[in-house]
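User: My instructor asked us to take a sequence, write out its structure as tokens, and then describe one feature of it. I'm not sure where to start. Here is the sequence I was given:
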Amino acid sequence: MRRGKPKRGGNKGNKGTTKIYFLIFAAGFVAVTFFLIGGILKSCTNDVKGIDLKRTLNAVGVKNLKDVGRTYQDLEAKYEASLQTIQSLQLKMERTKRNIPIGSVNNDAIPGIKPLQVGQKYADQDGEAAAAIEKHDEKSSNQLMPPPGEANRLPIQKAAIVGSDVAAIKKNNLRRDSKSTRNLHANNNDHNNNNNKQILGKTALVVICFNRPKYLRKTLDKIFEYYHNENDVTIFLSQDGRVSSVESVIDNFIAKFKMKFPDSPVPIHLFHTQSIGNGYMKLAQHFKYALNEIFVTRGHARTIIVEDDLEIAPDFFDYFNAMAPILDNDDTVMAISAWNDNGFQQFTTDATKVVRSDFFPGLGWMLNKRMWDEWGPKWPKGYWDDWLREPPQRKNRVTIRPEISRTFTFGKKGVSHAQFFERYLGKVVLNKEHINWKNLDFSYLNKESYDKELHDAVDKATATDVSTVKNIAYGHDNTLDHDVKIFYKSLDKGPQPSFHMLANQLGIMGDSKARVPRTGYLGIVSLRAGNGNNKRIFLVPAVDVKLK
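Assistant: Let's start with the prediction itself. The structure tokens for your sequence are:
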């Protein structure tokens, strides 16, 4: 191999390579150094922030992760309350303009133009629209508060949604204004009673469910059987948590419903993330979520609430449809219920009779947006039904309920652990007749007329003792031809006979809430002689009984 003379500059390439390696090494060393210094500084900063965070949490009484969750829930509740307070003030301003006195029956409460309903377009949509809002349905009222910037933008976004619909809604309503007003005056001239009032807005039915698929299927089967298009009710199925067997029952119901009622609004499946606390607390927060969805997000005028252990009567929807104008136009009424706590066969007769009650019974009931605007911002963390019975919520208003129940509870398994079921709830009679509620006159439910008739009847009733009433009620003596009354001297503990003692002897529910005897009105508990006898039995407070 021939070796020639080396070329000039032959080592220059090696020197260049070495220089490059040196630069790479130097750059890497500098980067690592800065990384380490940055990490140290960041660690120090985090330590300081951690100390500040601990101090802040300790200052507000937060000691663990559950406390953090509760704090976020409280902040969220305050945020929701602020929004609903604004809505409540707007409602009061509107009522002031319409000159509606609180605590009176207003016979001119229906304007010719329907009020703007936030999110009404959602209530009128199905199919693709329902799918478009499915993501929103999966959100829960228990999610964390949005960042401050987002929170400030939320009302603006809602206002934008409303603003985009104002023109169309006003145009449609103005077109109907003249005709609606003429029809309203015609109705008022023909019959001066509440059942001839027009129904404002749309009604929703929400089924509250959690982890009882068999119960839920039984409830939905009856809803499916008795639902009809004429009532124009949108069905919501609000599920607490994500129990797969419950989801399957709901999916099957929606599929069947769409086939049978293609022209009706498609039922909407809502998901709520379960809250912290016992069963009563979880249920209360689920109620709040569902009612906010229906009234605030989707703009319904009223909703019927059914839990997943109720069977409904054949005329369930017609009954609530007939009662809706009374709820909307009588400010002495806070709710409509389908349930009579003492609706046993031996104490009920008239399937068409509806009464006023100071005791809120629940178990299939309806409220409207007027009441949710009032109750929603202060909705309790738990035990919502007893909360509604307290004076600050009830405010001497009543619940309208039927003499014979339009719901029946079969729920031995549940939050209340079958309390009173065997002795009372399971024996309540469910109406089986289909009453034509459209043809009935409910003017007797006007407070002034109702109170006068009740007091007159009690005054004329013959005083008797509990043994005589037992003979009448349980079929030993069915010849009663006049009303009778028994006086009680206290609700429970105190002078005897007490209401509790008399109720136990008669086999009716004898408890009281907020010093209101169950099913009572003005302290008077009214029963029928039963077994086909239309005469009444009154349990009446003696003069010196303190019910306030």
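For the description part of your assignment, you could build on this observation: The radius of gyration is 32 Å. Try explaining in your own words what that tells you about the chain.
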